[in-house]
Amino acid sequence: MGASTTGAGVTPLPWRVARLVDRRVETPTAHTLLLDVPGWPGHLAGQHLDVRLTAEDGYQATRSYSLAAPACGNQIELTVQRVPDGEVSPYLVDTYAPGDPVEVRGPVGGWFVWRPEQTPPVLLVGGGSGLVPLMAMLRARRAADSRAPFRLLYSVRTPTDVLFAAELRRRARDDRGLDVAYAYTRQAPEGWQGEPHRISRTDVNAHGWPPDLEPLCYVCGPTGFVETVADLLVGQGHEGHRVRTERFGPTG
Ligand SMILES: Cc1cc2nc3c(=O)[nH]c(=O)nc-3n(C[C@H](O)[C@H](O)[C@H](O)COP(=O)(O)OP(=O)(O)OC[C@H]3O[C@@H](n4cnc5c(N)ncnc54)[C@H](O)[C@@H]3O)c2cc1C
Questions:
Q1: Ligand 1 pocket, Cβ-based, cut-off 6 angstroms
Q2: Do 48 and 133 form a contact (C-beta atoms < 8 A)?
Q3: Atom of ligand 1 nearest to the CA of 65
Q4: Whole-number Å distance between alpha carbons of 124 and 15
Q5: What are the pLDDT digits (tens) for 77-112?
Q6: Maximum Cα interatomic distance, the chain, rounded to a whole number of Å
Q7: Probe target for ligand 1 pocket from 108, 155, 247, 248, with the most ligand atoms within 8 Å of CB
Q8: Which of these, 204, 110, 227, 202, lies nearest to 151 by C-alpha position?
Q9: Those residues with Cβ within 8 angstroms of residue 182's Cβ, 6 or more apart along the chain or in another chain
Q10: How many CB atoms lie within 10 A of CB 229?
């Protein structure tokens, strides 16, 4: 963390001042923040940055957030899910106002990334806000007009909690070679076949790729979710080095 892992050698990343340009409400508890970051060097889908808040008394708190979309010049997008009683996420979702500064440092990460020149099939498995870096991959795929076959399996509590719901519906319809499947853990939409459940071997078998196609699997979400899914994939026969994981924090 705090150093660039891309390019030649390791260089310390500078803190830059970012300002909020706009926000989109994604769900009752998650907002997308559009930030202007002068000097932003660009990033790959799947990378994240660190956000540092400084209180008037000098107290600082730093948290990581995934870059939700390809950069547009100096403008980047983060999608933040409010964690009850959290230190940083409630401020970013509820209080952070247009023009206000925060410090950011990034991009960070060189393993949990998807590059447009990659052609193997891809399985994305996201739990809750773990969808964010996977969404960046779907957006980068579309922007590059990539034909790499993609499947997304998204585990979410209820239909109201689905991030980027309209865009996912549109992409599932319009982006050729992309399949999107949902697993609801607490409440499923009306007409849904089956009961709400935590993601299982049956889901991964039904919505993933067979290991002999040598897909790259990207798994992101709460720690327990990631460990369960990674174990299922390896148990299914996927080689460990093709199962890339990113843990966001405790199991909610
Ligand atoms: C590489 C990386 C990328 C991330 N990207 C995103 C992102 O794109 N969007 C996003 O919303 N979050 C993301 N996170 C999670 C984020 O960094 C924070 O952990 C989260 O916002 C909570 O911070 P907080 O200060 O509000 O809560 P804290 O004050 O840190 O924690 C408050 C309480 O909530 C628990 N908690 C902490 N984190 C979580 C969590 N993720 N889920 C459930 N409970 C938790 C803590 O154990 C504690 O009990 C990412 C984390 C990592 C490591």
A1: 48, 63-66, 79-81, 83, 85-89, 129, 132, 222, 246, 248-250, 252
A2: yes
A3: 5
A4: 31
A5: 999 999 999 999 999 999 999 999 999 999 999 999
A6: 57
A7: 248
A8: 204
A9: 153, 154, 155, 156, 162
A10: 28
Does the predicted model carry a pTM greater than 0.85? yes
- 43: tokens are 């990033």
Residue pair 61/87 in contact by the 8 Å Cβ criterion? yes
Could you tell me the distance, in angstroms and rounded to a whole number, from the CA of residue 21 to the centre of ligand 1?
A: 23
Question: What is residue 81's predicted lDDT score, i.e. its pLDDT?
Answer: 98
Give tens-digit pLDDT for 11-61: 789 999 999 999 999 999 999 999 999 999 999 999 999 999 999 999 999
Cis peptide before 133 (omega within 30 of 0): no
Query: Atom of ligand 1 at shortest distance to CA of 80?
Result: 11
The residue nearest atom 53 of ligand 1, judged by CA position, is 248
Residues whose CB is less than 8 angstroms from the CB of residue 110 and which lie 6 or more positions away in sequence, other chains included: 5, 6, 44, 47
In the sheet where 150-156 sits, what is the strand order? 178-184, 150-156, 122-127, 216-222, 243-249
User: Of 54, 24, 28, 49, nearest to 39 (Cα)?
Assistant: 49
